[in-house]
Design brief:
The complex is a heterodimer of chains A (116) and B (114). Chain A has 116 residues and is mainly beta. Helices cover 0% and strands 54% of the residues of chain A. Chain A has no helices and eleven strands. Chain B has 114 residues and is mainly β. In chain B, the strands form two sheets. In chain B, strands 2, 4, 5, 6, 9, 10 and 11 form a seven-stranded mixed beta sheet that branches. A four-stranded antiparallel beta sheet of chain B has the order 1-3-8-7, with no helix packed on it. In chain B, a hairpin with a 3-residue loop joins strand 4 and strand 5. Classes of the chains: A mainly beta (116), B mainly beta (114). At the A-B interface, strand 5, strand 9 and strand 10 of A face strand 5, strand 6 and strand 10 of B.
Chain lengths: 116, 114
């Protein structure tokens, strides 16, 4: 099955600086890579996603890059703000039963702390 | 639209007790999922249902059973709860287009097994 590694586990940046979170995946058949933001006690919320036929996607201050050859993808947040403080999870589409590739495999999360 | 709803929000069980977690979605999605979230472990897939009438195991299915009652509802049952099943359980749903499946999550059920 799929395996997703995420780094770092904790990231502290000054307000206004950029933050980068990196993930690697193992299954070359995975072709969908979402990023979720989770605030304390809340549900995960999708913030951006990328499909395997695209190398980069941007939405205002958030961007995601994908390198299929190296099997890694990254989340970039520019001009960080206090409300960006949360846990961020990367994920990859994965196959569990050899055919039904419906579930997501998640990384273990990055706790992003924005220092004022 | 309520999106994805889950009941109950909180539950405390004793070891050996059984219970069913309920999930419903009103977005006409065909696929539904159950995940558990443990500290430092991210979310792990327990079971999923690609479409009404089908269910399949995920990464950590042991100790659980599921029922896809209809297109809207997908329940998760713990037959004999164990302390290792203390976790936060999230239900999710998606409209599966090929393999690009943006998943929407419910608010979660916080379960403690004593």
């Amino acid at each position: 099955g799929e395996n997703v590694e995420q780094h770092p586990s904790t990231l502290s940046v000054q307000e206004g600086d950029s933050a980068v979170i990196k993930c690697t995946y193992s299954d070359s058949a995975s072709n969908y890579f979402p990023w979720y933001k989770q605030e304390l006690g809340k549900r995960p919320q999708l913030i951006i996603d990328i499909r395997s036929n695209v190398g980069e996607k941007k939405d205002q201050r958030i961007a995601v890059t994908l390198n299929k050859t190296a099997k890694h993808f990254s989340l970039h947040i520019t001009e960080t703000q206090p409300e960006d403080s949360a846990v961020y999870f990367c994920a990859a589409s994965g196959s569990y039963s050899g055919g039904g590739a419906d579930g997501l495999t998640f990384g273990k999360g990055t706790h992003l702390i924005i220092q004022p | 639209n309520a999106g994805v709803t889950q009941t109950p929000k909180f539950q405390v069980l004793k070891t050996g007790q059984s219970m069913t977690l309920q999930c419903a979605q009103d977005m006409n999605h065909n696929s539904m999922y159950w995940y558990r979230q443990d500290p430092g472990m991210g979310l792990r897939l327990i079971y999923y249902s690609a479409s009404e009438g089908t269910t399949d195991k995920g990464e950590v299915p042991n100790g659980y059973n599921v029922s896809r009652l209809n297109k809207r509802e997908f329940s998760l049952r713990l037959e004999s709860a164990a302390p290792s099943q203390t976790s936060v359980y999230f239900c999710a749903s998606s409209y599966r287009i090929q393999r690009y499946n943006e998943q929407f999550f419910g608010p979660g059920t916080r379960l403690t097994v004593l």
